[in-house]
Amino acid sequence: MSREAEIKTCQNCKQEFTIEPDDFTFYEKMKVPAPTFCPECRAQRRFVWRNERTLYKRKCDLCSKNIIGLYPEKTPFPVYCYECWYGDGWDPLSFGMDYNSSIPFFTQLKTLTQKVPRLAIWVVASTKSEYTNQSYFNKNTYLSFALRDSENVMYAGRTKANKNSVDITYTHFSELMYDTVNVEKSYNSQHIYDSEGIIDSSFMFSCRNCQNCFGGANLRSANYVFFGEQLLKEEYKEKVDKLNLGNRNEVKELREKFDDYSLKQIHRAMELVNCTNCVGNYLGNSKDCYYVFDGFELENARHSIWVFTSKDISDCYGMGGSNNVYETIGCEDVANCFFGNIVDSSTDVFYSDLCKGSQNLFGCVGVRSKNYCVLNKQYSKEEYAEIVKKIKEDMDKNPYIDSGGIVYKYGEFFPPALSPFAYNETIAQEFYPKSKEEIINLGYRFSEQGTKNYIPTIHVGDIPEDISSVTDSFTEEIIECRNKGAVETQCTLAFKIMPEELSFYKKQEIPISEYCPNCRHYLRLAKHLPPQIFNRTCAKCGKEARSAYSPSRPEIIYCEECYKSEVV
Known about the structure:
Layout: E1 6-9, E2 16-19, H1 21-30, H2 39-47, E3 56-59, E4 66-69, E5 79-80, H3 82-85, H4 105-113, E6 118-119, E7 123-124, E8 132-136, E9 139-142, E10 144-148, E11 151-160, E12 163-172, E13 175-184, E14 187-199, E15 202-205, E16 208-211, E17 214-217, E18 225-226, E19 229-230, H5 233-241, H6 248-263, E20 266-268, E21 272-320, E22 323-329, E23 332-356, E24 359-362, E25 371-374, E26 377-378, H7 381-397, E27 400-401, E28 407-408, H8 428-431, H9 436-441, E29 479-480, E30 494-495, H10 499-508, H11 517-525, E31 534-537, E32 544-547, E33 556-558, H12 560-566
Parallel strand pairs: 5-6, 7-8, 8-10, 9-11, 10-11, 11-12, 12-13, 13-14, 14-15, 14-16, 15-17, 20-33, 21-22, 22-23, 23-24, 24-25
Antiparallel strand pairs: 1-2, 3-4, 18-19, 25-26, 27-28, 29-30, 31-32
């Protein structure tokens, strides 16, 4: 018999939240207690464990070679390069600790996390891609994060299988793209959003299978459309040829025109493709999902983001090929995994960090190909079961209490104090941007930007307006970013143009931006709706409709039925 919905008060933000009957069903199946944090605070707590794009130059603490890593020098824990971390020069079990029932479990786990070496950065089977992270099977990629199967790509984020593209986010299976968000299977196009199958086009929103279009919204299988006007091929070419897309001010005017035009068009309440009984956004080929975003091929998933090909999961981020998972971030190919950070190819794992190819772990860090370990210490099967039972009981009797008075019993994710990162180094700053003062007041760590050893040679206002006037020597310049170090966008203060990048801009007739790569990333994120759902009213039929668009936004929202009746 299912339980009724219950309204709880979040232990962290003190706001009320609802635990739905299906949530209780999941918790009972996973044998975990109901959460004391609301979904947003749970997500924020996980996100402070994922640094995607804050990089540092440092040395490997084992072989001493110069490396790029996610951690600055002088961390409390050692940091190893890829070869050393996966090598035979150290043993994770040598850091094993005896469990002490008189000390809160998370206090002991924090001690362990500050001893065990951490992998400097996640770059797997990639070539000429040193300045990337969460990077898998890539070639010639630069300052790109959470990407795979890509080649000759710069400034990409959360993308797959792209080639010869710059400034792309949530973009897949595409080539020769610039400034795109939520795009698939497209070619040689710029400023494309929420679209698929776009070729030789610019400034498109929510379009499918279009070619040679400029300024379009909700188009299907269209050709030669210019800001909603159907033209003949020659007429279209004449209009486009009059534009100078290599001029920054002209592109700015076109963007303003496009933003105004697209705002007047109808917007789909939720982007769901081939989904059954789902609430979320940017979701495909899934069923029975509730508040799930940016995923595909899911079944019975809840409160999760950026998840794929998984079943029976809740409160997960950055995961694929998994089942029976709760409160994890960065896990892959796992089953029966609970409260984990970057656990891979493992089963029956609890409260573990950076573990791979293992089974039956509890409170382990950096363990590989092991079984029945607690706090990096090996036990027999019987001993393991006994000590895990004891720890769970002790976590309720003697919980960890953080500096803000938050109580962490069994069933809570790692306290933020255990994270190796500061808030503004992580994706928490992307999803929940905060000022320095807000970060500190909320009890998170803030990382001060170190003194930069460079002085801009090109200041805001002095960047050439037209790409045609930029010479090859421009790659030697240090360009001041217009945001001048803004914390909210992880601004790097200044940036350089790489030779390959300049070649791309010249070939594609794209002007030099006034913003650094991080600030451009945040500008693109503004085109990607936050992971939230609101109760709205369909602007056509007047029925209530759940939508990813906040009621405070000006877009015209149509329910799914009305949208499909208008956009064929």
